[in-house]
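FORM 7B: Structural annotation worksheet

SECTION A. Query
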Amino acid sequence: MLSSLSNCLADYLQDNKIINEKEKEIYVYGFEIIISSIIGVLLVGGLGLTLNRFLESVIFLVVFISTREYAGGYHAKTFLSCSFIFITLYLLLLLFTEISHKNFEFYQIISILLISILTILKFAPIKNCNKKLSQSVIVTNRKKSIVISAFWAILAVVIFPWEKKLSIVITLTLGIISMLMLIEKLRKEDKYE
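SECTION B. Predicted structure
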């Protein structure tokens, strides 16, 4: 469905002479990314409304998208598996936050944030074979991922005494991003051994 919709959109652009045949494949891929991203955001938002966790869902999305855009990380082979993994991680984050927020201690926030920030400092940006980056873009993305993740980490620390759940959501989202970075890094190393 995603592929056929993306092809229809690209065909429409080609039929109206907005793009040529050589560009069609690039546009199909771009439409697939856009549509799958919209579906992911709508699913998380819808689940957030249904579960009465809309604010947590918005925080998760904003932290995840803003940091992951520049840090990179694991990419699933298909859009369906990507959406499944994304929604599963989101639901696990909500579940863990709900179960543990009363017993979550400040030192745990600091520990997770330190591991996450150190991972981003060491590996960002994780390169993706589908998205070639110039050296200048790599340097820029590295700086942006460090600044953005540091901002979220500081915010999580500052709001912890008043908004414990939101602090945990920010912290765990950064933890998920760093975990996805490590998975991709290990996966790439396995390919070359």
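SECTION C. Observations
The first helix runs from residue 2 to 15. The mean pLDDT is 89.

SECTION D. Sign-off
Analyst initials: ____
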